[in-house]
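We give the chain.
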Amino acid sequence: MTNSLEIECSALKVTRHKIERVGCAYFNARRQIGDANGVERSDSDEKLAGAGEDVDISYLKSLDPKEWKDQDHYSVLGLGKLRYEASDDDIRKAYRRMVLLHHPDKRKAKGEEVITDDDYFTCITKAYEILGTPKTRRSYDSVDPEFDDGFPSQSDIDNNYFESFNKYFNLNARWSEKPNVPPFGDVDAKREDVERFYNFWYDFKSWREFSYLDEEDKEKGQDRDERRWIEKENKTARIKRKKEEMTRIRALVDLAYNNDKRIQRLKQEEKDRKAAAKRAKMDAAQAQKAEQERAIREAALAKEKAEKAEQKRIEQIRIEREQQKKVLKKERKTLRDKVKDCKYYAKNDKDQLKHMEGTEKICETFNLAELQALNKAMETKGRESFIAALHTAEQKIAAELEELNIAHQKKQVNNTPKTGVKEVKKSELWSNENVQLLIKAVNLFPAGTAQRWDVIATFINQHCSGGSSPVTARDVLNKAKALQNSDHSKSSLKTQANEGAFQSFEKSKKEVQTTNDITLGESPAESKENHKQNGGVSQNNQKQQQQRQQQQQQQVQQQSESKQNGSAVGAPASTPATTPTTNGIASKTWTKEEQALLEQAIKTYPTTTPDRWDCIAACIPNRSKKDCLRRVKELVELVNSKKEAQAAVK
C-alpha cells in the first residue's frame, strides 16, 4: 500500500504559478499545498476562511453610503446571527473576509465597474469602524434594530406565562449594569427567589445609552459655541430616551408582577394567615367582651345623639347671631347712607365733623331695635330724630364712663393708705414748678410712648431748677395718680395756670392786633403803606379781630384747665393760643376741626401730587398754603423734641 502511494506521488508533475496572497484562491492553494505536503492548517486560517456568513451582494449594492447610520452593521459584516454576542476577534475576521471579497481593487481586477465615491465598500468600512471600537459598538448595541423592545401579548401571557416572560427578561438582562441577573423562575419557585427577582428588576440599573441617535455631530460645529449648543441638544435628547427606556422596563416588570400567579398565591397565603390569626383572636375574646361591647355601643349611641343635639343647638344659635349681625350691619349701613345723603344734617363744617363722629357713636351704642326705630323715625322727622339719637348715644357713653370712674374710685379707696404714705414722704419733691413740668411732660409724651415714665422723669430733671432733688419714674407715676384722684377745684394750681396763661395772652395781644391784618408775604413797612392806602382798618376787620381775640382768650383758658384736669391720664394738650411765626407775625389758633381736616388732606394728597400744598390749603377754610406749611413744621419740631427726650433716657 505504501509503495503504491509513493509511486503515485512521484508521478505527479508539479508546476509553479504566481498567485496573490489574498482571496479564496490563495487559501485554497495553501490548503492544497498543505494537504499535499501533509501540513495541517492552522486554526486562524480555518477561522479566517470561514468567519462570518455569506452576504447577499444585492443587499450590499442596495446600501447608500450617505445613510450609513440606518444600516445594519452586523448584517453588513455577515454577523447578523451572532450580533452582540460576537467577539472582537469575530468582528475582525469578518471584516478581513469582507475586504478579501469586496475590496474595490479586487472587483476592478475581475472587470467589475466600481464608482469610488458611491461604492458599498464604504458601508463595510463604516461598519467595522463602529463595531471595532468598544465605545461606538456599545452605542450601536444600545439601539440594535433587531432588539425587541415590546411586551408579550395577553394571549401569550394567558397560555404560556413563564416562557413568554423568561424570553423578554433574558433579552433585557443584557442591559444590566450588575452581573448575575436572577432568573425569572417557574411556578414552583420559592418565596425568597420571587422577591429577589422583583426587587432586582424594580431597582434595575441599565447601561443602555442613545448617543448613536444624536441628530448632529458635535465635531462638525464651526466654533465652540455651536459645538456646545449641539452637545446640549444631544444631551437633552439622550436623557429623554433614557427616561423612556426606564419607563419601558418598569412597565414590563409591572406587567409580569400583576399577572404573576405566584404573587397572587403568596398574597392570598399571607392574607389567609393574617385572617386566621385575627379570627382566632376575635373568637377567643368574643365571649368575654360581648356584653362590654353592647354597653359601649349603647353609650356611644347616646353620646352621639347628645353631641348631635348640642351641635344642632349651637348651629342654631350661630345662625341666629349671624342673622342678627347681618340685620344690624344692614341697619347701620342704612343709617350711614341716610345721614350721608342728608349731608349729616350739618350747617357748617364743624357740625359736619361732629355729626360724622356722632353717627359712629350711634352705630356702636344702639342695639338692633333702637337702630330700626331710629331709621324709621328719620323717614318722617329727619334731623330731630338724628339729634335726639346723638344725645342718647352721648348719654350712654357718659353713663358708661361714670360707671368706670366709680369702679376706679372704689379701687383707689382701697389703695389710699399706701398712696398717702408715699405722698407724705415725697412731698418735698413736688414744688409748683415740678408739677407744671409734670403736666407739660405728660401732654408732651402721651400714652404709648416707649418707657414713658422714665422719659418724663428725665424731662423733669433736665428742666427743673438746680436746688430740687431729682425724681424717679416711680415718683412721677405716683404723683400722676395722686393728681388724677385729687379734687382740682380746691387746688391753687388751676388758678395759677389761668393767671399765667392770661398774662402770656396779654403780652401777645398787642402783637396780634398789629400783625393780624398783615399778609404773610409782606414786610411790616409794606403792610403799613397798604394800610394807609386803604384808609385804615375797616369796621368789619375790627369786628373779626375782636372775635379772634375772644376765641384766643377762651382757648387759653381751656388749655390751662385741660392741663390741670387731664394731665395725669395722659390726655393730649390743647393747641397753643397763638402760633409764633417768623418775623414776629402770629397766626390764629388751629382748632380741632381744622387739625382734623389738615391730617385728612395730607393723607388724601400724597407727596407725588402736583401743587400738593395748594390742594391741602383748599380743603381747610380760612387757611392759606403758608399756614398749612407752618403748622406741619411745628408738629415736626414737637416730634423731634420727643425723640430727643427719649434718646436722653436710653
Remarks:
- The longest helix spans residues 261-341.
- The CA atoms of residues 433 and 465 lie 8 Å apart.
